[in-house]
Design goal:
Blueprint: E1 40-45, H1 51-55, H2 58-64, E2 70-80, H3 85-88, E3 91-98, E4 101-109, E5 119-126, H4 139-149, E6 155-171, E7 174-187, E8 190-201, H5 208-217, E9 223-224, H6 229-238, H7 258-282, H8 286-305, H9 312-349, H10 354-379, H11 382-396, H12 415-434, H13 442-462, H14 468-505, H15 511-543
Antiparallel strand pairs: 1-8, 1-9, 2-3, 2-6, 3-4, 4-5, 6-7, 7-8
Helix pairs in contact: 5-11, 7-8, 7-10, 7-11, 7-12, 8-9, 8-13, 9-10, 9-14, 9-15, 10-14, 10-15, 12-13, 13-14, 14-15
């Protein structure tokens, strides 16, 4: 397939946190060791039918060394208002029994990503099995919870029942906690099967849990998991399906080095990819495919932007895999854009037009075929391997495995010293093309759009290093200009899609369908003309924005 990054043997130290009894009943177990250092955890989904194969896997038996297997039962009920106000606000309130007591837990989402189910939890004892918002220990969250609930009653909306099996795995002085959770979420619509693995470890190699997952992936159909149990329960109960997620702003500490900035950018791009996989695989919401594809493009752009300080032999494989991924998703996205911007507006104006209906049906059939291809790609082992190998590369900071040169030494310098010249260079390349925008050819506008996209991603990666207001103004005006040029590119693609659809209809192509294709072509041509008239004004506003890195 491709050559993976170097994989030095894992090493670490035993951790009292890992060696304890089964963890408390939490959807997001404790992420820190007793000394306060972080624990890396990776969560994975596994088909229930593969549980027996996992339990018998020789790797687990060898690393467990005959140690005991600890088992516990997890039961809790989730409460909310009739209109699911807490879930819609990113909160989850659940109760569980703890001996003679009841424990109330309020979860708040703190982001998704590969090390999934990371959330903040606030626990308190309550009497009976009825939640009490007044007992939430955090004052701000208590006020937020009360505002969501108002005077409405809280009622149980679904229950979680799991059997948790824990093993401690040992290798070369490193200890991993391996939790297998199998059970169901029960609610008004029946039962949703749950089968998850969480691997937690701490040592000299923070990628150890991910590397173990990669070894198990050789024999088991593991999937990176980005959603907490609470989120999955709400999605199932509400019937809305997996949510889509836009890229979150990149954040680093003040005075961050270039390495710290790149690690944050790469993790940010990988998180966007993983978070949108469930929606992209399902294929109902077009944003799922779009946002996953955007995440892959952002990560590829980051490799190009920071590439001079990174060892080529390490990230060449990742660029190739990301190119494969965007290629598998591209046809679905192109057909989604064509339908929503070309055919659907015309159908809204002419709902009885048989030719437009025939074109729409042909487009939907082509879209369904493209979605099946995308879903198959995400179901294949190549997808989780891409995610896990990238996560291991980032966690281990494997780019340090290179000779110390003038270029590689830049990783440890303050980030602005590296990024400001690159931003300036990309900005000047855009200006050279943009000055001729009024009389630019289709090819020149296409080249400008590509350069704008690269500049936009670079600005998003580095905005956290500079004054927020200036960076935001620059990014906003850059985005408007790029979107306008992107729309012109979509128009050009629409003409190709029309030719393909008419060919797909073949001998069945009627005079009505040919006439309808003319309507659509005219519509998109009018739309293109409108965008072209806006370009000079958008360009002037962009140039007036000022370069935030100066």
């Amino acid at each position: 397939m491709h050559s993976a990054p170097p994989d030095p043997r894992r090493a670490g130290a035993d951790d009292p946190e890992l060696a304890g009894s089964p963890a408390p009943d939490r959807s997001a177990p404790d992420r820190s060791a007793p000394d306060g250092s972080p624990l890396l955890a990776v969560r994975l989904a596994l088909p229930v039918a593969s549980v027996a194969a996992l339990r018998r896997h020789p790797l687990l038996g060898a690393l467990a060394g005959g140690g005991r297997v600890a088992r516990s039962t997890v039961e809790r009920s989730y409460w909310d208002t009739p209109d699911l106000a807490l879930g819609n606000a990113g909160l989850a309130l659940h109760l569980r029994r703890a001996g003679r007591h009841s424990v109330q837990t309020l979860e708040t989402s703190a982001g998704l990503g590969l090390a999934a189910a990371v959330s903040r939890e606030f626990e308190s004892l309550v009497s009976g099995m009825q939640p009490d918002p007044a007992l939430v220990p955090d004052l701000a969250l208590r006020a937020r919870l009360r505002a969501c609930v108002a005077d409405r009653p809280l009622a149980p909306i679904f229950e979680l029942r799991l059997e948790r099996t824990r093993r401690l795995l040992h290798e070369d002085g490193s200890t991993l906690r391996f939790d297998l959770e199998v059970g169901e979420i029960h609610g008004a619509f029946g039962a949703l099967p749950i089968c998850e693995i969480e691997v937690t470890g701490r040592g000299k190699d923070p990628s150890h849990p991910v590397r173990l997952a990669l070894e198990l992936l050789e024999d088991l159909p593991l999937r990176p998991l980005s959603r907490t149990l609470a989120i999955r329960g709400y999605e199932w109960m509400s019937g809305r399906g997996p949510a889509t997620h836009k890229a979150q702003p990149v954040t680093v500490s003040e005075g961050a080095s270039l390495e710290e900035l790149f690690a944050a950018v790469a993790a940010n791009g990988l998180a966007q990819i993983v978070e949108n996989e469930p929606a992209a695989s399902l294929g109902i919401d077009p944003e799922g495919v779009h946002q996953l594809r955007v995440g892959a493009r952002r990560l590829r752009s980051a490799l190009a932007f920071f590439g001079s300080a990174l060892p080529e032999r390490q990230h060449a494989w990742l660029r190739e895999e990301l190119r494969w991924l965007t290629g598998e998703l591209g046809p679905v996205r192109d057909l989604d854009v064509f339908s929503t911007e070309g055919i659907d507006p015309m159908l809204a104006l002419r709902p009885e037009d048989a030719g437009l209906a025939a074109l729409r049906e042909a487009a939907q059939e082509a879209r369904d075929a493209a979605q099946r291809r995308a879903t198959a790609a995400l179901a294949a082992p190549r997808w989780p391997r891409l995610v896990l190998e990238t996560a291991a590369w980032i966690a281990r900071r494997a780019w340090r495995e290179q000779a110390l040169t003038a270029q590689s030494a830049k990783l440890f310098l303050p980030a602005p010293l590296f990024v400001a010249p690159l931003l300036e260079r990309r900005h000047e390349r855009v200006r050279r093309l943009g000055r001729r925008l009024a009389e630019a050819s289709t090819e020149e506008r296409h080249r400008l759009r590509i350069r704008l996209k690269k500049l936009r991603y670079a600005a998003e990666f580095t905005a956290c290093l500079y004054p927020e207001r200036k960076a935001a103004r620059y990014a906003q005006r850059l985005a408007r200009l790029q979107d306008a040029l992107g729309h012109l590119n979509d128009v050009a693609n629409a003409e190709q899609q029309l030719d393909t659809l008419l060919e797909r209809l073949g001998d069945d192509t009627s005079l009505d369908a040919s006439r309808a294709a003319g309507f659509v072509a005219g519509w998109v041509a009018h739309s293109a003309h409108r965008e072209r008239t806006r370009l000079p004004r958008l360009w002037q506003r962009f140039e007036a924005a000022g370069r935030f890195w100066r």
